[in-house]
Amino acid sequence: DTAVSQTPKYLVTQMGNDKSIKCEQNLGHDTMYWYKQDSKKFLKIMFSYNNKELIINETVPNRFSPKSPDKAHLNLHINSLELGDSAVYFCASSHRQGGTNYGYTFGSGTRLTVV
Amino acid sequence: GQSLEQPSEVTAVEGAIVQINCTYQTSGFYGLSWYQQHDGGAPTFLSYNALDGLEETGRFSSFLSRSDSYGYLLLQELQMKDSASYFCAVSHYGQNFVFGPGTRLSVLP
After folding, report:
1. What is the 3-class SS of B21-34, one letter each residue?
2. Residue B45 is nearest to which of A40, A99, A104, comparing CB atoms?
3. What is the pLDDT of residues A53-111, one digit of tens each?
4. Among partner residues A45, A103, A108, which is closest to B42 by beta-carbon distance?
5. A31-51 residues labelled b (16+ CB within 10 A) or e (exposed)
6. Chain A residue closest to B95 (CA)?
7. How do B9-13 and B103-108 pair as beta strands?
8. How far apart are the first and last CA of chain A?
9. Nearest residue of B to residue A57, measured between CA atoms
């Protein structure tokens, strides 16, 4: 019954590796996001998809590539992981009513540690 | 660009009332939202204000003044479980939310 589910919850990997984080929502929302939360708890948007179309692509290294196979799924693939990629990554979804986004439902987060 | 300011920490005792302020500078402002995040958890939605004024939801209320680019979250009858980080976030052109740096609230017995 989880509304927005992310896997894995924890990910420990070595520098240089490639990893993926998966996200699925069962709320029927049309927009999904990836946010990065750093060690100081600052939440910064990375990407946003609306009905499988990329609408926001913030200044993020091109080692990060989102993929949305359908509007219920948004995955994040990271190539050549670096120490600075260590953070908590949150997936979120929302529904736009009348063109306005009123708020997010977040997934439980993926804590990525690069060693 | 966008910028939001919140106090970094607030401390209060159980049963008290606390107000967490948020000031913002942004283009394309649609509304102000508040989120609660417990340590190790995900942010959870608390409120959204698009119009000026106070909105009340149980023990929590949220206020917005668009002319002052200012809002606040008011928590009443504080409980220990309210100890968490609270984030204000502005709706940017109605598309996505830009988050403030967060305020860590500690509720003491």
Report:
1. EEEEECCCEEEEEE
2. A104
3. 888 888 889 999 999 999 999 999 999 999 999 999 999 999 877 667 778 999 999 99
4. A108
5. bbbbbbbeeebebebbbbbbe
6. A101
7. parallel
8. 34
9. B96
Is residue A39 within 8 A of residue A85, CB to CB? The reply is no
* pLDDT for residue B48: 93
Is residue A95 within 8 angstroms of chain B, CB to CB? no
Confidence of residue B46 (pLDDT cuts 50, 70, 90): very high
Q: Are B43 and A43 in contact (CB < 8 Å)? A: yes
Looking at chain B, which residue has its C-alpha nearest residue A94? B96
CA distance A109 to A89: 5
Would you give the distance in Å from CA A67 to the centre of its chain? 10
What is the nearest CA distance from B78 to chain A, expressed in angstroms? 23
Query: In the predicted model, is pLDDT for residue A41 greater than 80?
Result: yes
How do residues A17-29 score in pLDDT, each as one tens digit? Answer: 999 999 999 999 9
Q: Tokens 């009348």 label which residue?
A: A98
Q: Is some CB atom of chain B closer than 8 A to the CB atom of A99?
A: yes
